[in-house]
């Protein structure tokens, strides 16, 4: 009887330990799901965000880009960056301002390029 009690206590401790650690809470074949990716990896994306966000912020006045922002814009893959502009990012980024900043910095996006929900219009005949 003492052996049975010791086995039960030991079993209870093992089960409790697994419950606390969470190893019984999910099956062994369960894979941890990562947060969904927000578009492709793009050359210069993080630099664009850190150096140019003040110029393209939604609801703020138009601001002339700094030299550092323009340097980043010239190196960045803007067509790829446009693909990263998801619905949640459109709440923070004014895509038309992004296009203006790129143009100001000497890097124009081709007409027809989809940037977020905005399509770059054709150049107007002057």
Describe the structure.
By secondary structure, the protein is mainly alpha-helical. The protein has a domain at 45-119: Plant lipid-transfer and hydrophobic proteins (Hydrophobic Seed Protein), CATH 1.10.110.10. The chain is 45% helix and 3% strand. The chain has five helices and two strands, in the order αααααββ. The chain has helices at 2-21, 45-56, 67-75, 78-83, 95-104; strands at residues 114-115, 118-119. It has a two-stranded antiparallel ribbon. β1 and β2 (118-119) form a beta hairpin. It is globular, with a radius of gyration of 26 Å. It starts with a helix and ends in a 7-residue tail after the last strand. The model is unreliable at 3-33 (pLDDT under 50).
Relevant terms:
single chain, 126 residues, mainly alpha, Hydrophobic Seed Protein, 5 helices, 3% strand, globular, disordered N terminus
CATH domain fold name of the domain at 45-119 = Hydrophobic Seed Protein
Which word captures the global form? Answer: globular
What is the gyration radius calculated from CA atoms? Answer: 26 Å
Biggest sheet: strand arrangement: 1-2
What's the helix and strand layout?
Blueprint: H1 2-21, H2 45-56, H3 67-75, H4 78-83, H5 95-104, E1 114-115, E2 118-119
Antiparallel strand pairs: 1-2
Helix pairs in contact: 2-3
Task: Please summarize what this structure is.
With 126 residues, the protein is mainly alpha-helical. 45% of the residues lie in helices and 3% in strands. The chain has a two-stranded antiparallel sheet.
């Amino acid at each position: 009887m003492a052996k049975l009690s010791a086995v039960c206590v030991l079993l209870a401790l093992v089960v409790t330990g697994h419950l606390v650690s969470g190893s019984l809470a999910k099956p062994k074949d369960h894979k941890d799901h990562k947060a969904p990716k927000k578009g492709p990896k793009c050359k210069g994306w993080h630099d664009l965000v850190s150096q140019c966000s003040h110029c393209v912020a939604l609801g703020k006045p138009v601001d002339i880009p700094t030299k550092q922002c323009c340097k980043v814009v010239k190196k960045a893959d803007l067509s790829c960056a446009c693909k990263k502009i998801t619905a949640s990012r459109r709440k923070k980024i004014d895509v038309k301002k992004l296009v203006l900043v790129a143009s100001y910095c000497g890097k124009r996006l081709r007409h027809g390029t989809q940037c977020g929900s905005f399509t770059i219009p054709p150049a107007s005949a002057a």
